[in-house]
Amino acid sequence: MSTHAPNEARVIPLRPHASSPGSGGATRVPQRPAGAPTAPAPREPLWRDLVGDALRRERLAQERTLKDVAEAARISMPYLSELERGLKEASSEVLAAAARALGLGLADLLSLAQDELTRHARSEVGRSRTSPTAQYDGLCLAA
Fold first, then answer.
1. The pTM is what?
2. Higher pLDDT residue, 111 or 142?
3. How far apart are CA 107 and CA 143, in angstroms?
4. H helices of the chain, where?
């Protein structure tokens, strides 16, 4: 039989509580098991992030507003903003429309995104020769 009152939930903290400032006690930090990695591996960029960055860089280089480009591409301004921030996966039709609105072809936009992915892969190879991204070194993804 339970010793706590009915309808009262017990809470088990997932992290140790920090000591209050006036208690004089040290904050206890959990120890990491031996052999555990000290930091998470850097996240490989997602394609939608790379394409969004390329769209935004090109729009800003042309000194155009979101509204101007969205109207030219016939897509909503909030949707274009989400694309640029990498929050939405766009169809090839939408990407082509956004690229055309910026005076680019779809291949141009995707090439800009690929260039950024290649730069990221090469910087990872420079950081660690055992990195999984080392496999991209020397690959030519564009024709």
1. 0.60
2. 111
3. 10
4. 47-61, 66-73, 77-84, 92-101, 106-127
